[in-house]
């Protein structure tokens, strides 16, 4: 019988190489954010200096104040609108996608597989192809130029439905659903009391990804909200960068402030993302 004392020492070179590679990836990934912060704290002279400065300056509060006090850009309102739009889209996506995923995974109804194929096929269609038709539809409803037109198309996603369907198929045993039905539980009660607690890691992953995508969405909010008094943060940043003379310290100060909420969110929910991905990989 082999004891721990007789075992040969493990080769840790692979571990060190892995950590070195991950550190380099992290450095290159974080450098653009750091550079954005450096410019947002600098003066116009420091921005135009050659070689450029790599140490943050002391003008961030001044640059941020200029961003918030510009009459042409309603930056404070844009941040609030981005929180509102992203929050509503995330909540609706989690509810509708988990409900649809539960239906596709555990309910038996006619045309289920065909409908699932249609959902998957919609993933292959670029969003740009439907912008004109979507704009016409929103105009018919009377929502063009409002936040409702930005929120409505993102209330459910084909990716979310497919992801929830795959996760629920493996995370919730059919026997558990059948036993709940034998005890008299209705479909919504099965969904609420059995399915939702079992798919919390997947909901965390989908919620974070959805919030980030909704926050960073630019094209559709630009079409709907450009020139209005209530843009989203990405549209406000485009307004900051427009004009014959672009003040980069001001633009990057606004970009950094619009990025901080995402960084905080990812730092808080990073473990949930890894946990959800790993659980999905193990179950699959």
UniProtKB/TrEMBL annotation:
The organism's place on the tree of life at top rank: Bacteria
Q: What keywords tag this UniProt record?
A: Cell membrane, Membrane, Transmembrane, Transmembrane helix, Transport
Q: Which N-terminal stretch is annotated as signal sequence? A: none
Name all ABC transmembrane type-1 domain ranges. Answer: 79-269
Q: Name one Pfam family in it.
A: BPD_transp_1
Matching entries from InterPro entries are given as: MetI-like, MetI-like_sf
Q: Where in the cell is it found?
A: Cell membrane
Q: Where primarily located?
A: membrane
Record field: transmembrane: 16-37, 73-102, 114-137, 143-163, 190-215, 247-268
CDD domains from the UniProt entry = TM_PBP2
Q: What is the recorded membrane topology of this protein?
A: Multi-pass membrane protein
PROSITE patterns for the chain:
ABC_TM1
Would you identify the family this protein belongs to, as annotated?
Answer: Belongs to the binding-protein-dependent transport system permease family.
Q: From the Swiss-Prot or TrEMBL record, give the protein name.
A: Carbohydrate ABC transporter permease
